[in-house]
Amino acid sequence: MLKTHFCLLLVLYFLSLLISDIQKASAGSLASIFSSMAICPTELVKCRLQAMHEMEASGRITSGQKSTVWTVVKTVLKTDGPLGFYQGLTSTMVREIPGYFCFFGAYELCRSQFAHYMGTDKDSIGVLPLMFSGGFGGACLWLMVYPIDCVKSRIQVYSLAGRQEGFMKTFTGIIRNEGFPALYSGLTPTMIRTFPANGALFLAYELSRKFMMDSVGY
To answer: What pTM, to 2 d.p., does this model score?
Structure first.
């Protein structure tokens, strides 16, 4: 999801000096609606590639030629047309809108708390507090959206076998057949990854922003 983070950070860059922490969180949430349109097709292809080997081994789909990005793209176009790439779009939006509100909101709130504690402004809190704030924002994002992401991925994978199921039907099916913990399967490695990944993301963003503003004498 890092590529989505960069797009949303560019939107927030132009607003960062004008709005409050809650408004920044809301701006990130609004921007996620448009990012969902961009990332849904690529996530569909990614989820299908990841699940294809398992589904072939279980006999749920017929084994064929080696799966590549291009073969998946051709299959989607052949069976469902261009709109087939947007299977799971609603689930993606349901995931992104609250998720990015928590992501940017938690980041800005954490930076504000560090600045208050250190008696300085948010741009002067230092590298480690900045990276922690980014990691904290990423952790809040995944805690919020992980169950939704699980349902979204299932929808996109099930469509590979010809099953067209909506969000609530897929969600209740997971709860009924596998239990609530299945919605958080794989959360631990995701949380371990998100702290350094988002810490580095926001560090690069803030340093780049500062460099560009200094360059133009702002």
So the answer is: 0.70
